[in-house]
Amino acid sequence: MCGIAGYIGFRRADEVIISALKRLEYRGYDSWGVAVRHENEIRLIKRMGAIGDEKTYSVAEGNAGIGHTRWATHGKPSEINAHPHTDCSGKIAVVHNGIISNFQSLKEELESRGHVFSSETDTEVIAHLIEEFYKGDLREAVEKTIGRLKGSYALVVMHAEKDELVAARYKSPLVLGVGDDELIIASDVPAILDYTSRVVYLEDGDLLVLMKGDFEIFSDGRKVNRKVETIPWSIEDAEKGGYEHFMLKEIHEIPRVIEDTLFEYLSDDIEIDISFAAGVSEVTFIACGTSYHASLIGKHLIEKLAGIPVRVEFASEFIYHQPPMHRTLAIAITQSGETADTLEAMRIAKKLGARTLAIVNVLGSTATRIADHVLYTRAGPEISVAATKSFIAQLIVLYLVALKLSGMTKSEMEGLLDELRIMPELVKGVLEHEDEIRAIAEKLSDYGNMMYIGRGIGVPIAMEGALKMKEISYIHAEAYPAGELKHGPFALLGERTPVIASLTPDETYEIMLGNIKEVKARESIVVAVTGHDDAEVEKYVDHVIRVPRTDALFTAVTHSVALQLLAYHTAKARGCEIDKPRNLAKSVTVE
Ligand code: G6P
Q1: Ligand 1 mean position to 586 CA, how many Å?
Q2: Rounded distance between C-alpha atoms, residue 81 and residue 33, angstroms
Q3: Is 356 touching ligand 1 by the criterion CB < 6 Å?
């Protein structure tokens, strides 16, 4: 998730922009850059890594400028790929958030007309298109340019010859801060609050012209008025988008994360080239933590849909197995791409003859350099230590990989693809039940132990649910296949051990009901997670968490989001420090 800041007013633009970018640091970034208009020229700096102390960077004197913190999506993290990007003349500078999906064909078209590109980014095509359309009116040139773009964008553009910024928004946020004789445009409110609390939220399709002391908004070529709102939050609240914790904010971002990940790989058909799997006779997943649970779900999907045998290994244990892997596809799942055990297991898998695929959230991370092939999740940076949105994004990629490996025709998989396409709406349907989930969480918050159970795909759902609970609430939570309860864990059950049961609408449903009755006979409180149309289960359990009905395969998404909320609200009721649980780290770079 990149950050944008643009300024026009009476102050030094570089100082305002750098301080605004620092306010967006919470979003995560790998490089950054600032452009300032100075004596009819664009003056630019770009750097890798953190901004550090803003006083050390002076770009140039000037009262108009744009800046950007980049979280790499197209093209590795590097100074050249950092924004702002310029055209051939160096007179036009652009910063952009989002993904231009037709950038490759636009780039080839522009190159055929003599444009020379210096970066690997999709953004640079925007600068060159504007250059072609520019006839002295920047707004007109940007308007024509966005007519050629497919994908999502929030962009801010500047021309060397005029104190004016032009911004456009489509499916990527932009907010305008309206100060006294100064305007600041940014991708999020914290960047603005040092200067003003009066803001205008742009809408999709809006084009905004910022001049000294004034601004105009256009939609469909016509001038429109948008409401100026006053932000009541502090900067710290604003970073969390008004949510109390990053974890909750990140859970609420899941519908958008699913959209972004699907946008990357699913159009009319699944856009994943799986030639890397040609000739393999088995798959081995290697991963840690939440990514290990995503792998267990991946096993279920690939075995069920594609009929290929799958092993799942803890990366830290794989080191001691070292099986022959000549016809194996080793899939490493790691949101950070930097987990030491996963990296080591990938290197060993390669030595053992496996082909390697990494499913990663961080572009340019070490895992992407080790793997033969990479698929990216589009979760954006995750701040909370407990993984939520990155896990769901991993699942989305796994659905697509499993469907692609299945060899089903497009029409055979159409029903499942349709359900995937509405997954953002289904997750919103889960989030709508948050109040009920909170009420249940508050009842659970006094217990010291919990048991999560499921069958089939419900087992890894239970394992991830239990992991979330123990990570952030410090309640001891175990997960078991429901059929295993009577082989030991039954001894733990009783009125002081609530049981959380995931019921999936498949061949496991009836037998799960039987297991729940057995649990109830041991006097445990039972919370069932099930489809909204399940009228049967409430006869046997104490609480029901309802989620929209889906094919059983997709319950991994809907149930997991519900269990993330359950863990969050339990931890909150216990007064735990949710975003940074004790003893845990977001990225584990030691073995
Ligand atoms: C740490 C994090 C977990 C994460 C695990 C694996 O334990 O706290 O949230 O699931 O590492 O991380 P990875 O980046 O490889 O997915």
Answers
A1: 6
A2: 10
A3: no
